[in-house]
Known about the structure:
There is one protein chain. This protein has 2 domains: 174 residues, 3-Layer(aba) Sandwich (Rossmann fold); 85 residues, Putative methyltransferase TM0872, insert domain (DNA polymerase, domain 1), CATH 1.10.150. 40% of the residues lie in helices and 15% in strands. The protein contains 13 helices and 9 strands. Helix 3 links the parallel strand 2 and strand 3. Helix 8 crosses helix 9. 42% of the residues are buried. The mean pLDDT is 93. S-adenosylmethionine binds next to helix 2.
Amino acid sequence: MHIPVLSREVVEWLAIRPEGIYVDATAGAGGHTRAILERLTTGRLIAFDRDPWALEIAREQLRAYQDKIMLVQENFTNLPVFLRQLGLTGVDGIVADLGLSQMQIDAPERGFSLKAAGPLDMRMDPREPLTAEEIVNRWSERELAQLIYQLGEERRSQRIARAVVRARPVRNTVQLATLIEACLGGRRRAASRATGTRIHPATRTFQALRMTVNRELESLEQFLRNAPSCLASGGRLVVISFHSLEDRLVKQYFQSWNREGRMRNLTRHVVRPSAEEVHSNPRSRSARLRAAERLEEGEQSPVSLELIN
Length: 309
Ligand SMILES: C[S@@+](CC[C@H](N)C(=O)[O-])C[C@H]1O[C@@H](n2cnc3c(N)ncnc32)[C@H](O)[C@@H]1O
């Protein structure tokens, strides 16, 4: 099961008003959704997830709150259009907890698992046309090396791309993980740059494939571009990222909003999980939370905070 990351901090930074309207842009198993719903009286929550299976689990988990919640199977890039259709000019808070849930990773048939054989799929939304299979078996060696280097931040990307192309057709996730492990010299575990902990040698390549299949950075960028206009004045945005490229994008947007006086940055230092949380939920170790607040038109951020990490 998926354990929500930085749940207490999400609720604190959203500063939930019991009568407010909130958006959980990434419902997943509904952990953060539930934490928000528990604090609403007359308030309402709109929960997005682009993955229909995730949304079904959230629906099950949140049955008790069905009169307060609206579940939507959509990419969070569509949030502005959706709010407009509902006639909402701005909500009181939005949370986006990026990436995948543990349930998605653990289901072999989704194709995210390094350990249990499954099809090379990796789509969060099965309506999307591109799968990992297409990239692994059809893209050029150069394109493969490039995406593994850029999105996986993997130095040995060219060696991996060459081995993948030679092994074609690659049929499942374990075959791919095993061939990457072999081409990098056996069972040696790489160290994660974010955390220093040992990871499977194919982890970075899988991450790069998944981010490409789901156009994750593009979606995040589009979401961030529109986020301020989806918030009422005083409304808050909380973003949790797990990847340095995502966090860099979030930080850049927060800095420019702060400079332009559109949003006040609330987290000068990025918020990380406590040692206790990392101990009880190792998946949380690379999480980084940032929060910002929508300013009134013409209002200035009282202290111009530059983010320092
Ligand atoms: C880390 S999980 C969220 C877990 C959730 N906060 C919880 O406590 O259970 C991320 C979820 O976001 C969804 N997701 C990722 N990118 C998305 C996007 N662009 N639009 C909508 N949902 C997205 C994934 O399908 C996944 O279910």
